[in-house]
Amino acid sequence: MEAAAKVELEGKPEREVSSFAKSLFLGEICEQLVFPWPAPDPAEQQRIRALNAAAREIGSRMDPREVEEKRWVGDKTIRELGEAGLCGLYVDERYGGQGLSQTGYARVFETFAQIDATLSIVLGVHQSIGFKGIHMYGTEEQRERFLPDLASGRKLAGFALTEPEAGSDAYEIRSRAVLQPDGSWVLNGEKRYIGNGSKGDVFTAFARCEVDGKDRHIALILEQGMKGFEVGERYDTMGLRGNDLRRLYFKDVKVPAENVLGEPGEGFRIAMQVLNNGRIGLGTGSVGATKRLLDLAIDHVKERRQFGRPLAEFELVEEKIAWMVSHLFGLESMCYLTCGLVDSGVEDYSLESAICKVSGTEFLWYAANRAMQLKGGAGYMRDEPYEKILRDIRIFPIFEGANDVMRAFIALSGMKPLGEKLSEVGELHLGDPIGTIGVLFDYVSDRIARQVSPEKISLVHPALSEHADAVSGQVSALRGATEKLLRAHGHEIVERQVQQRRLSDIVSDIYAQIAVLSRVSSIFEDQGVEPSGQERYIADTFCSRAASRVRSSLSSIESNDDERMSAIAKLAYKRGEYGYALFED
Ligand SMILES: Cc1cc2nc3c(=O)[nH]c(=O)nc-3n(C[C@H](O)[C@H](O)[C@H](O)COP(=O)(O)OP(=O)(O)OC[C@H]3O[C@@H](n4cnc5c(N)ncnc54)[C@H](O)[C@@H]3O)c2cc1C
Predict the structure, then answer these.
(1) What per-residue string of b and e applies to 491-502 under the rule 16 or more CB within 10 Å gives b?
(2) 14-28, 76-90, 548-562: range with lowest mean pLDDT
(3) Of 68, 122, 127, 162, which is best to mutate to test ligand 1, by the most ligand atoms within 8 angstroms of its C-beta?
(4) Predicted TM-score of the model (pTM)
(5) Domain 157-266: top CATH class
């Protein structure tokens, strides 16, 4: 079992939970994990300010359009970023990094995302996923060998998981590493869509391997220049055109034993854990990018006049801006609460990071569309940033776990502990619902005595108790709905993806509300309720809107047209076309 976060309840025995969000599916609110709001470390704040200033300064000399034309952010830019300490943000200082917390890392990444999506992806491929595995699972020797060059930007990293036949179903990769008598491995296979492809010096690559007669996965550190490691053709992408996206070929690549990451057999788990972490970055990156869009939109609607007044004065314009502000507040709260969980030592944040990724990337997409709408015809012109932003960010809901698959993962891994409880009393056989879409953390459900979990949120500021009560009710309803679905479908629940999506959306909205309540409670405590009227307004708006979405999803779980929709799709597959001709052609 992974070490779990320990929760000390006042006067109650110490208990363990593996994940805050998973406990919600059990109808429990492990509020000590999320209250009080995780306060940032003041010493780190100073360093972050300096790093952000350096990032902005380097970014100001970078022309995103030129990056698109040249199709690379530029070796000089990478060198400057490295010299400024921006290529090894979380790496321990003894390897030349900045040693930032997850929160600190996220804050600097927001700045990258505000400068340019391509810059944030090149640096994200490098740090969030490229060498994160070495940081998390590397031996001391591997860390000493690789991290100083990577943290200083002298070398760039990449992450090679996807293959032509294995995208969302990454478990099914076909690249294979075979153990040699001298302890080395010979790797054969092919990868596609690999960022930093020809620019990367070090790649964390994944392959199948045999361990004790069983077919498993292995994580390998590949280095540019290894014989048989070939960089293939570059993809002509819609956006992120400065990201060097390539195929990679492995032809009898001899990988020494000292380049095996973790234990042979652990490869899939390493890949998923790295991605779990990377997904938080996509959430916080979306926060940063939306802040920029909001700034652009506010400037424009205040300045542009139509019908004799500024656009800003029209109610439909106000509604768009208010939606962006309040939703951004919710997303930001949720992403930084998740960073706080990671910083506090919670090891299982797989569900929370998936929630941040899905919510962040979809909110950013709609925010970009609304900001462009407000810009009118001018927004459609290529001298404005919107078309590039839309092209760049469209991939976010697809890569690092397609959002559809992430929703299934959130729901299925969330309902697993409850499924186990029900199977223990012989009420159903759930088995492993996740299949190959992720890695389950052990959930120590036995050690969570339900009767000692608070049924209501008690640590919220009294001025927010109305929302806290509503959220507590939603958590019980989530448990009720999950249990009902499990009893109705048993193991077949894995096939009911639309119901899974509803559960996933419900838990996301609950988690976001709790994050907002925690954040605003701490503002009230620090500054008083009266002077914090604006935050109260945002919390009221965000929570009541989220509660209404939760009610709507709960009602659709009860009554829906899922079967009809499934039948319509099957008929369309059979016809192979739309098939309802209005006119005879
Ligand atoms: C710009 C870019 C950068 C990338 N960078 C990297 C990188 O650096 N390293 C790397 O390893 N990979 C990278 N990728 C690959 C990326 O992670 C995959 O494209 C992604 O995982 C989806 O896999 P796929 O393209 O094979 O789509 P598929 O797996 O074929 O899925 C297509 C669509 O089908 C739907 N779908 C799939 N499975 C399910 C399901 N179980 N239930 C419901 N719906 C489903 C989803 O809507 C999904 O979007 C990158 C891709 C792009 C385009």
Answers:
(1) eebbebbebbbb
(2) 14-28
(3) 162
(4) 0.94
(5) mainly beta
